[in-house]
Hints:
- The chain is 6% helix and 64% strand.
- It is mostly beta strands.
- It has a 20-stranded antiparallel barrel.
Amino acid sequence: MCRCHFPAQPRLMRVATGVAVAVAALALHGPANAEANLNVEVISGYTNNLQRQPQGEDEIPVSIGLTGTWVETTRRLSANVEGRVDGIKYLSDTFDDEVVGQFDGSVTLWPVPDRFAWVVENVYGQVATDPFAPISPENRQNTNFFSTGPDWYIPIGERMRAYLGGRYESVRYEVVDTDSQRLSAIAGIDRAVSSSSRLGVRGNSESVDYSSALQSDFDRHEAYVRYEFSREQRQGERQSGATVNAGYTWLVVGDNDSSLPFLEVSLTRALSSSVSVGLELASRFSDAGLEFAAGGVWSGQGSGADPGVIPEASVFEERSGRGTIDFDRERTTLSVAVGLADEQYESATLDRRRYDAGITIERRMTRRLTGSAGVLWSQYDYETDGLDREDTDNEYRLELRRGLGQRLSIAVIGMHASRSSDDPLTEFDETRGYVVFDYSLR
């Protein structure tokens, strides 16, 4: 594995800086009816194995970060934007100083309310360059997913409507040569079954072209029945909803065709005012670009990158499931999640199965003091030519946060991460500690 540090490409770093400035401007100058926040964090830490190698070196990273969020819903605008940019200095000079940015935003403009919309979405962050090595500053690359296009709703009587939509999308990687562009179209018709549910049919068609001639372009098609349900939230109740897409999907790669049943299920059920459960199921063709976009901003402070995405220019058959339980009381929140994903690649000699489980708990102990703890376990089974192996990752995290006023807080964070593997060169143990000063500008 290459032990070198890849500097960020100017184009991608301009994107990171631009989105951070945009979020900051929106948070500071957003309209009165918008929910906008802007935070500055100063972080000083210590790690005994920043490279996450079998025998790593100590490092003292210090950073300053800017985080902004903007949420707004009006008749002509819907926005949900979050972004972060961090400037990091390594005092022991193990790595060059760097700037890391993350952004996840969706803005929908309604020139004709409830009839015609234009959607702009962008996800920016980092993924691993070598998916078989632990995440570290030397094994991550900037990645950007951009999507834009129209949605057109055509009423047919009082309860029915037709739907037409289209998207242009692009995926850009900093290091690997798997950039792509895609065009997609969707058409459907549905009917309001009740005041809170709709039932209909849809069809999607997508064409993906890679920038490199060494990669195989492909077309993907889907036809399915769609059911949507959303219950309006009442005072003291949690939200319940469901989206079910069930049908068939086809894939064309060169002269080869393949197909499989298509299923996407997302369910949220409120069992009481404080407990809710969730379920997600999927059977579909996917690829690295869509997987990165669906994951949004990776929030792992320890690694700073998404360990799940393999930046491979190949489609894979995905069969996955995830279950969650959330408990929320006045002073205590608890979240439990378990998941499984099986990925079988069409053209690359790589198959993978992922298992993961996690639990987080937060307790407000006093008016100003809050404690939280989390445990994350994941296992990756790889099956490919010359490489059949199993990696098991564990991460433990503790945090104490105390408010020092209306806008300022201080947090002490401890984390331990480890990997056991069939490849001893990728095994590691790392312990980190942070002190974080957080100041809210709004």
